Structures are given as C-alpha cells and as structure tokens.
Task: structure prediction
Amino acid sequence: MVDKAGAVTGEILDALVLGGGFGGLHILYQLREAGFSALALEAGSDVGGAWYWNRYPGARCDVESLVYSYSFSHEIDREWKWSERYSAQPEIRAYLRFVSERLDLRKDIRFDSRLVKAVWNEEERYWTFTTEPGDTYRARMFISSAGPISAPIWPDIPDRAKYQGRLYHSALWPRDKEPDFTGLRVAVIGTGSSGTQLIPLVAQQAARLSVMVRTPGLYMPACNRPLTDEDYEKWEPIRDNVRQRMRNFEIVGSGDIFMEEELIQIRNRPGADFTPEERRAILDRRFKYGGATVPRAFTDVVTNKEVNDQISDYIREQVGRIVKDPKTAAILTPSEIAYGQKRVTVGTDYYETFNRDNVEAIDVKATPIEAFTEKGLIIGGQEMEFDAIICASGFDALTGALTVIDIQGVDGRTIKDEWADNSETYLGFGLAGFPNLLMIGGPGSPSVLVNVIVANEFQVEWIERLMKHMRAHGLTRIEVDEDAQAKWAETVRNAVKGTVLEGSKSWYVGANVPGKAQGILAYAGGLANYIAACNDVADKGYPGFRLSPPEG
Ligand code: N01
Result:
C-alpha cells in the first residue's frame, strides 16, 4: 500500500517532516510558502504533538500562553485569544488545530502514520520512509520535529505485565474515554511535571491516593488564573515589543509578561550584586507573580553556589509552610536537588493535596518499589493493592523519539547505534553519516532548556534559509563533518562546566533511562549564543557541513 503523494506517483518530495506539533506545523508552512513540496507524518490522529498525547488530568503548559505560541504570524497571534495564563492541554490542542486549519496545513499531513523506518539512498540522494500502516514516501530532505520529550518510558520495575488493574502512563493517556477514579485505590509513580499536575485532580476522585515519591523536585505554584479583558488591554500595546525583545533575547519570554519592569531588568544582573536580604525581597516579589519565575531572578543562578543555594532553599521552604504532617513534608522536601539540576515543576495545589485525608506520600527512595503484582505493587516486601496505577515516569528525552525508529544513513549506519555512546550532533541540526537529515529540537540544541517555541521558530527559519541556499546553488546533498560535530559536542559539554547542571541526575543528562549514554543532552549556553553560532555558520556558507551538487 502506498500513498498517493509518495510512491504511487513516483514523486520525490523536497522534504518529509516528522511530527505534527509546534515545530512540524511551522516548518511545513514555511517550506510550502518557500515553494518546496513537503508532507508531514504524524502518529496521532490530529495535530498537537506532545499536546496531542499528554492529555492526563491537569496537563497544562508552564510557560505563559501569550508567549507559548507562535510569533511568526501577526494574524494568527491576533486572531487567537487564550483564556488562561497557563493554558490547559485541550486549549493548546485547539490552538494548534486552529493554526493548521487557518494555514490550510492539514491536507499535507498524514495522520495515524507512525514512521517506523527511514533509509537513505546514497546513489539517488533521497530518503525512503515507511509508516506503520505500510505507506511509503520518498523525499530529498528528512526534517525531524519529533519532539524532544515525546518518547514515554515506563518505570524500571519488574513484572508490569502481571498487573491486572487499570494501568496508565501520563503520556499515553486514553484517547477515547476519560478515566474515572471515583472510589478507587490509586497509586501514582512519579512526581515530575506530569505527576505534580495530575496528583491534585486524581486526589479529588480517588478513595485513596498513594503517591510514590523517589526524588522530590523543586515545585512552584503557577498562580494560574483566567486572562481578563484588562490583561488583554495591557498586552495589546506591549505585544509586538515583548515578542521582539524575546526574539532579541533581552527577555526570557516564559513567565514574565506582566512582571514589573524593575524585576525584568534585575534579571539581567548577577545575584552577587545584591545582599542576601535584597535577594530575598526580590524572590518574594517573584513568588507572588508565580510560575517558574522565582529561580530565574538573576543571571548567575546556575553558576554562583551561594545564589543557587538561597534560591533552592527559598523554594524548599514552602513544603514545611504548607504540608501539615512533618513526616509527609520530609518525604516531599527536595533536599537532594539544586535549582537547575532538574526541571522545576509548576502546578496548582500540589503540596496542599497532601493535607487531604485520602492522600499519602510513600518514600520509595528509602524503600524502593520492588515489583508489580497482579493486584498492585511490592514495596518493602509488602504487597500494596491498587485498583489503578498511574505511571508519570517520564520520557527518553531528546534522542528517544529517533532511536525508536529504524533510521539508516550512509552504509546502513543507524541512529540507534550512533547515539549508543553519546548524543552528539552538529549545532543540534545534523548528524554525521546521515545526509539530508535536519532536526528541530534535537540533542545539542537549546530546546528544553529555553522557551522551546522560541527555539523552534529560530530553527525552522534556519532550516528554511539552508534549503533555499541549497536550491539556489543547485546543491542536493548536505552532510555534517565529523570534526565539526566533535567540536560542537565539546561546546555543548563545556556549556555546563562550572554550573550546577554538572551534578544533574535527571533526564537532562539521560540518567532516567537505564543504559542510556550519560551527558548533557541540550545546549545550555543560552539561546542568544546558540543563535549567534548558527547564524555565523549560515553567513559563512555553512562550514562544518559538506554540501554538494548532484554527481555526474
Ligand atoms: O517526567 P520526569 P515528567 N520508582 O522524568 C519517577 C515536560 N513536561 O513526565 O526523579 C519511583 O520529570 C521519577 O523519579 P526520579 C517537562 O520538561 C512539561 O513528569 O527518577 N519513581 C520522577 O519523579 C518535564 O520535565 C509539562 O527519582 C520513579 C518521575 O517518575 C518533562 O516533560 C508537563 C521510577 C518522572 O519525572 C518530563 O516530565 C509535563 C521508579 N522506578 C511534562 N521511575 C509542562 O509544561 C521513574 N520514577 C508543565
């Protein structure tokens, strides 16, 4: 079975895009506008990417929606109105559906099409793609926007298949019927961003909720609220300026839209400029504003231990203030984590939920979960019975979305093998041995360490510029130079030297996936430096890439 746009007509597309999320929709649009033929493959039945699959209760973004949205189109920006400061998953999905319809992208997306194989044809210089329903496509360029956090992993606990109760993963939530936990004994494994968001809502239904806490993270209340007409009256006159400043990297654009200008300016100064008392007063003002903004108070939060300690302590203090039972508070206190080593979680009523009579925290660091059983879990040699178990156990981040696909480059080299020992790329865009493959949000790019929508938009525009360059110069092949890749990998490693990230044991460094190569996965040197490096490469005619015209 082959698709009309692919093998049946014999057409070789200019590009095949993997993924129908934020990055995939944008690159599809840009390529079409630039006159390239392109299709996108999406495993889900609709657009949304991560926001299609992560439909667990309470799923919402932790970046303010007014800037967790596209800026490339003034029209789209003005036509869409967000209802809340941090939008919930259904609204983000609706937004992406709106964008896909508004830009007439859906006709170029193949839904329910999971890419399982991609093979590079060196002689003919194109990729052949095979999807799970068995369709095949061919394209000169393979552009992956598969998502940095899109390959779910289950907890590394034996005998999961034995469990006879209702088993869920937060990122593989049922698409047909919303689960009802009313009257059930429920366990949640995992207290990262997903667990933190779903626990308060599941607790409202469950008869008993047991939260398995292994490494408690730093948590901040979102202070989410509806966006009012008044907010929009404030936003309209500053919108273009904020968007521009974000694109110039003067502001982060993740959670400070309506923040006082003075605090935004302080953010450009090191915490070392202030006394501990002054810093505390600044943190108090940020805390009132809400979201992940407290830790982003100064420029040196990940490099200056004293400043980092103060911020980490400030966040930790909340636990004892809110959680009434001291034993529970001790289990939830993130004593092992410094700010920056693990992503701060942002939610609503998370700590408050542990004051409910039907909720308990179980310390599974002290007493690990040993195994699943037919009826529940074994912890400390004792079986605990549960009617439902929710695994909010995270993702094989940045590399996992591509290593699960059989991607064969030059001489049959596979991405899975290439990334067995490291996750090296050149500028996060390309990988030696895999010609004409370009990545959005790939390892070695800033992606998850910044406002990912802003990073995506830059990468999309950079790829568009590269493809136009290749077309203008009659070039049909591009491949990363091994030396350039090794140098960029060194830059990525150096970017965390002397920062708290060196001590990270989280998915940032692959520590959550047994057997995964360990090392920082994203470029932590800041979006501005990253953009300067990538633009410099483009301005100089793409050194580090070998570009060539058709042979013969
Ligand atoms: O996954 P995680 P996530 N026994 O990896 C625990 C983005 N995101 O889905 O830390 C016991 O953070 C594990 O424990 P430990 C965001 O970037 C964004 O929550 O390894 N526990 C940990 O607590 C985020 O960072 C949004 O000790 C086990 C949890 O499972 C990223 O996605 C919303 C265990 C996994 O936490 C991932 O978040 C959701 C075991 N055997 C996600 N195995 C927003 O925008 C695993 N764990 C808000």
User: Anything to note?
Assistant: The two ends are 33 Å apart (CA to CA). Residues 61-62, 149, 155-157, 170, 189-195, 197, 212, 214-215, 343, 346, 364, 369, 392-395, 448, 507, 512 surround 3-acetylpyridine adenine dinucleotide (CB under 6 Å). The longest strand covers residues 136-144. The chain has 17 helices and 20 strands.
